[in-house]
Amino acid sequence: MLTIVKHPLIEVKLNIMRDQTTKSKEFRENLDEIASLMCFEVFKDLKTHNEKDNIKTPTGVTLPRIRLDYKIILAPILRAGIGMCDGIKNMIPTARIGHIGMYRDEKTLKPIEYYFKLPKVENPLVVVVDPMLATGGSAIAAIQAVKSRGYNDVRLMCLVGAPSGVKAVEEAFPEVPIYLATLDEKLDENGYILPGLGDAGDRIFGTK
Ligand code: PRP
Ligand code: URA
Question: Who lines ligand 2 at CB under 6 A?
């Protein structure tokens, strides 16, 4: 199921990211901030529980200590997914981080996996993270890689999606919820999202 996280703050920050004159530092800051804002929607259904010990407020009231029921693993697709992790970690400091090394072959647009490591945690919620969902090839390969290691509770959190990428992921994994900050129009002939924001990895890491 696709959820588009709509919010005026996200709209403004995304617009800054789309601007070709925006430099790496500002691009990264806005990406992190949008990732933080998206957490409100992506994790809104998580349950909490009361711990056995209590907290005491400065006003002298005793309350139960509340914790998330879930163990969360963030699984950024390298490289660009890394750019969203601090923003999510700021909201969920207990989240663990794995890494999925994957890049698109420039000609075939097919994903090539070169690294995979997730923390060993029992029954975690794994959130595959990547700013760009273009053809969907990388996300599908990443989710496949996660599931094949026995992790079954998976969500996909991206920033900008193309309709064809969303459709491809939905067809491959109808049970995986997809979250985007925006659904853009289409892909160009090189597989870039239009209007998009260009090559996310290059813009985050200043490699162009
Ligand atoms: C980008 C992006 C996604 C992928 C999306 O990564 O970060 O992982 O492309 O495209 P897709 O939906 O068509 O698979 P890229 O391959 O450029 O690797 P990089 O982050 O290492 O630059
Ligand atoms: N990868 C990117 O970084 N940008 C796109 O528009 C498509 C794939």
Answer: 80, 132, 134, 191-193, 196, 199-201
pLDDT at residue 208 in the model: 80
Over residues 13-45, the pLDDT tens digits come to: 999 999 999 999 999 999 999 999 999 999 999
Given this model, what pLDDT does residue 106 score? 86
Q: What residue type is assigned to position 57 of the chain? A: T
CA dist., res. 48 & res. 58, Å (int): 23
C-beta of residue 127 within 8 angstroms of C-beta of residue 42: yes
- Would the CB of 182 count as within 6 Å of ligand 1? no
d(CA 137, CA 192): 13
Q: What is the distance in angstroms between the CA of the first residue and the CA of the last residue of the chain?
A: 35
Query: Does the beta carbon of 87 lie inside 6 Å of ligand 1?
Result: no
User: Which secondary-structure segment (H or E) carries 12?
Assistant: helix 8-18
Kindly list the structural domains of the chain, giving each domain's residue range(s) and its CATH number in brackets, ordered by start: 69-208 (3.40.50.2020)
**Low-confidence residues of the chain: pLDDT under 50:** none
- Whether the model clears a pTM of 0.70, i.e. scores above it, the answer is yes
